[in-house]
Amino acid sequence: MKKNYDGLAIFFESFLCDKNCPYCIAKDNIQFLNENENFDKLEELLKRFSENGLHFDKFILSGNGETSLQSYETLERIAHIIFKYQHLFDSRRFYTSGNLFFDNQKFELVNQYFDQINIMVNSLNPELDMQITKYDKAIWKNHNIKQAKNIKLDISLTKYLDVKTFVEDIEERLKLFPNIKKIKLKRLKYHGEETKQSKWIKENRLSEKDIDELGDELSRHYPKYTNSKDSYFKINEDCNLILNAAGRKNPTKWIFIKNDKVFNYYDEELQMEKVLRGEAL
Ligand code: SF4
Fold it and tell me: Of 22, 91, 252, 280, which has the fewest beta carbons less than 10 angstroms from its beta carbon?
């Protein structure tokens, strides 16, 4: 029997970030934070997944916070275990807001053991990006970003995205960084409650009219395809762009590891026996 899940994710629960982005979902989720996480049983967990024939389309290592601010030892430990059980996953992805590229040792580790580095930006124009985040990510001038074997750009659909020049901007970026293999334009997700972050997202998200205009512009330049999961534009032979105007789907067929236990998207603990039978979600 096929025991396939869409993904397996480790979201660090201890918040580590020195930035203050106004839309920060990690801060929106502050009630879930836990200082005492450990990964002592991660290998044992993956061994059980492997023995029981489970498979995940993706593995992701992400915040809360900036993933690359975790200690080198923690990242190395997780990277080695995940690599050892790489047959469980089609791809292994690491999320960063850009800090990763400024730490050579961590960058080399991640570039070696993960298939893809996901970077979140708000605009391809660093000055517009900075108007939101109030700091210069400075990633495009960093030498490590050129060495990354596979980059995915997650670009948020906010008013700071330059819709009129987007096609020009992306082509320019791809000329300089042919290692960008995927681009996703997506709406920022908020959790419904009236937090400061949710309000910012509501006020600053790109209007539907502007998103339609962007879609039309992309259609005029690039062929559009649909696969079993998404519609995407083919920017060139090596790079696809997904315009996800609806926002991120709830990853309902995802399993989340926290403190060596397994949870669903809604933070409810799952029964291990069901997980191992492929019937937990
Ligand atoms: S860099 Fe990421 S974790 Fe840090 S404040 Fe910004 S959105 Fe939040």
Answer: 252
- Nearest atom in ligand 1 to 99's CA: 1
What CATH class has 3-277? alpha beta
CA distance linking residue 168 with residue 218, whole number of Å: 11
Total count of residues recorded for the chain:
281
73 or 129: whose pLDDT is higher? 73
Q: What is the pTM of this model?
A: 0.91
Q: Ligand 1 within 6 A of 19 CB?
A: yes
Q: What is the pLDDT of residues 157-180, one digit of tens each?
A: 999 888 889 999 999 999 999 999
Residues 6+ apart with CB under 8 A from 267: 32, 256
Tell me how far the alpha carbon of residue 211 lies from the centroid of ligand 1, in angstroms: 24
DSSP assignment letter at 59: E
